[in-house]
Amino acid sequence: MRTAYTSDQIRSAELALMARLPEGTLMDRAAAGLAAVCAHLLAGSRGRVYGSRTVLLIGSGDNGGDALYAGARLARRGARVEAVLAGSRTHEGGLAALRKAGGRAHPYDAARARELLADADLVMDGLVGIGGSGPLREPYGTLAELTAEAGGLVVAVDVPSGVDASSGRVEGPAVRAHLTVTFGAYKAGLLVDPGATHAGAVELVDIGLGPFLPDPEVAALTADDVADLLPRPGEESDKYRRGVVGIAAGSDRYTGAAVLSVGGAVRAGAGMVRFASSAEPVRLVRARWPEAITTVLDPSLVLKSSLDEVGRVQAWVLGPGLGTGPEAHAVARAVLSTGVPVLVDADGLTLVAKDRTLLRRAAPTVLTPHAGELSRLLGVPRERIEAGRLDHVRRAAAELGATVLLKGSTTLVAEEHRPVRVNTTGTPWLATGGTGDVLSGIAGALLAAGLTGYDAASCAAYVHGLAARTAAGGEAAGRGQAPIAALDVAQALPEALRTL
Q: Which residues make up each annotated binding site for K(+)?
């Protein structure tokens, strides 16, 4: 499992470690790792380090010192290294080391900086480290914007300047790196958008912080973690032991959501799917997924909060395409009155936002909103949620008493008193209608199989993203990706699960 930490947690660990080491040891370790990564990049892009053009953007803090010492190491290997000194002060030891190695340093000048960046093979962003917060001041903001014009690769030192290391917030100009070399431990803001987009690929350099780190604030499951959590049938398994999931979804107006959510559950390995809805979605589900046991709901029974006609289930999926009228509300109340885990998505979230009493239940509840739906649940503008996804998903889990899966370019899973899990799979091609319905079916199948809400949501997001990559065709070496439809994701689930 990949774990990530806030700036305060990292600084505390660094102080504890530095107290046991000679002065300057941590910076030397960081600079050595940074230089090694940059040398590898230069060798890959130019064939060698010697003669390459490297530009260092240097701020006032230790982040600038890391970059200067790394630049000195590259200069000793024959790189032409030039530093733009943008801070009110400069790390003296790092600057002396760079000059001694043959590198050059220049006070900040916008025209000169633009010229240097345009010709650079590699740009090292050492403006602001993990202590930075809020918008970049000048001239850092201008330099961050100028990196977009750089001719070569942009490498961020520890965290891209302009990205909040703890949350991933970006409140103005920020460096967009091809690669971020981070020291000691992953920073939470490197894994969560918008920070993750600015970070590019992230490479960790071990400087010895491990024994001094507390419990993480953020975690990301690996393929091995997911493989260990996924249920597998044994010799004595039958369809009931594998998990029976009930799905209350679809309406005469929104029939596709029913077909897709059932498809996600069937393809994700549910032992049995019991689908309940009005006549038209039931007809279409029967035609597309004959494996499902279907029930046309009797409105009079639903109004009495009775789902006995559906049969016994071990978890419910509620909401995709359900509608938000009185009958849909009655279905929601009936489902949420049961004593089994319930996943609430789409229209179900709208119903819950209007009537929070629906969430007063003892059994586990998983909510799967996108930012707009979470906005309605919390009464917070969508823009604020998008800007601070970590803070708001944590708040939602605590306030709503549920496991919350916040969908988006970075999918987050939060449960109170647990690290927020960041999903690392997926593709931009997932941004198409109906894929969230498939995700609901996958998570419902895992809930019915006995996974906790936290694990079911986390594994479902991972598998969903992996299936999307598989469907888009970009997993094979040398192949690009192509557009996909939601049903393609459901159909690709068996292949994605085989890889795990």
A: 63, 125, 161
